[in-house]
Amino acid sequence: MKATKILLLVVLASLGLAIAPRGAAAQEIQLEGPLAGAPAVRHLVLLREGRFFVTPQISFTILDTFRRHMMFGLKAEYNIFDWLSAGVYGGGGFGWRTGIADQINDRGVDDVPNQDYDLNFPLRGELDKQLGQMQWMVAAEARVIPLRGKMSFFGKLFVAVDVYLNLGVGIVGVKERGNTDCSIQPGTGTRDFCPAEDTYNAMQTRVAVGPTFGGGVTVYFNDWIGLNLEYRSTPFTWNQSGTDEFGASEVELDQKINADDQFLYWNQMMTIGCTFAFPLTPERTP
Predict the structure, then answer these.
(1) Is the pLDDT of residue 29 over 70?
(2) Cα 185 to chain center, whole Å?
(3) Which of 24, 118, 203, 210 measures 20 to 30 Å from 13, CA to CA?
(4) pLDDT per residue over 199-237, tens digit each?
(5) Stated pTM of the model
């Protein structure tokens, strides 16, 4: 019986050694033949590298509180590599009131001669005399194109697509409510109201500078024309509402309209454009 137990232990130990995991060893695969050292893609169409892009664009601001803007512009860029380009953008346009601004304009204070009123309660029908507006914009920026490929529609229509990110400096022409000082009412010394005739000073223009960044997609219908869709944000400080926002507290404002009433806004816009590439025929890799 004892010998049988010893024999059984020896058999089990042998089976354990047989099924125990062994160290894995990787074998390097040497590619030989005509594919040795070959590039991943041959005859790749270099849609960007060494070419100039000219893109007429139409832009619309989004998430606006008081005034929306439409800008007509042109983007020009040179593609240093297929994944990197540098360019400039310039455009100008006009704005119009949002729905909430229309309600404020229609329900403002009645224009009674010599009536005194708070700067933050506009006269009825006079809101356009205080709302800020972007008049023009130029930008210098670099673009990185990290993604590129082809897209298929129902397995029949194929188009080339690239996705890019851009970063640069934006310069914007801004029109804002003219500087107004109603901190002391003539003859009374009070700080609460302002004479109506002194309220709407002439609108003033200035140049605002800030970063500009975003990204977009370019869809190529052939070697030299494509559709461009882009998002852009250009944050800078300005007074969109044309109201008094600065003071010792939210209750005690300083009854002035000046640079202290400017706040940071992201100034976001969506853009659609048509891209033309020059020269018309792109280079190809070996």
Answers:
(1) no
(2) 44
(3) 24
(4) 678 899 999 999 999 999 999 999 999 999 999 999 999
(5) 0.78
What tokens were used for 102? 């229309």
Question: What is the per-residue pLDDT for 95?
Answer: 94
Mean pLDDT over 49-72 rounds to 95
Q: What is the length of the chain?
A: 286
